[in-house]
Amino acid sequence: MVRILLGITLLGLFLSCDSNIVVSENRSLPNNWDKDEAIQFTLPELDSLQKYDVFINLRNTNEYPFNNIFLIVTMEFPHGKTLVDTLEYKMAYPDGTWMGHGIGDVKENKLWYKENVTFFEKGNYNITITHAVRNNGDIEGVSNLEGITDVGYSVELAKPE
User: Fold this and answer.
1) Structural domain contains residue 42
2) Which residue did the predictor score with more confidence, 128 or 8?
3) pLDDT at res. 1
4) What are residue 13's phi and psi, to 5 degrees?
5) How far apart are CA 125 and CA 97, in angstroms?
6) Which residue range(s) make up the domain with 32?
7) Which residues have a Cβ under 8 Å from the Cβ of 148 and sit 6 or more positions away?
8) How far apart are CA 99 and CA 90, in angstroms?
């Protein structure tokens, strides 16, 4: 009996060490992502002495009509400071094959957002994500972006330098 418990404990420790994810959250979208739909997340309070890597998580299907995506990501600090980044990520290789991971027509994409970040202010940080995709030559953005099924973020412990 002791050997079985020891084996289960070791297996649990081995599997739990597989990931550096501290917090992660995803939101499912309906059939499309409206250009005015801002997806907001509130991060829990994190250790202010620890360094973290922050990622944007996207799931796309074969219905996604572009080979890249433009995102506007806003991070609001607890005491009012706001950082806004316009980001471009490649979603497909030149031959049209999706870059994400997954089986079938749904691909998971883990996209770098911030590296070696410290959350030094006490309180909750907010991350807001909107898309800024537009067709070549168009001034207005794509109003209903198809093929993105989930949007999220993850915070991981940064790897030691």
Assistant:
1) yes
2) 128
3) 54
4) -65, -40
5) 35
6) 20-157
7) 29, 32, 33, 58, 59, 60, 64, 69, 131
8) 8
- Tell whether pTM > 0.90: no
| Cα–Cα distance, 143 to 140 (Å, whole number) | 8
Interval 135-159 mean pLDDT: 90
Strand partners, 73: 85, 129
Give the number of other CB atoms < 10 A from CB of residue 44. Answer: 11
DSSP at 35: T
Task: Choose the weakest-confidence range: 8-17, 55-64, 68-77, 141-150.
Answer: 8-17
- Cα→Cα distances 52→55, 64, 159, Å: 10, 30, 8
78-91: per-residue pLDDT in tens? 999 999 999 999 99
Beta strands in the chain (DSSP E): 21-28, 32-34, 39-42, 52-60, 68-76, 82-90, 107-117, 126-131, 144-146, 148-157
In degrees and rounded to multiples of 5, residue 151 shows phi and psi of -130, 140
* Any domain includes 116: yes
CATH code where residue 32 lies: 2.60.120
Closest by CA position to 152, among listed 40, 33, 21, 18: 40
Between strands 21-28 and 126-131, the pairing is: unpaired
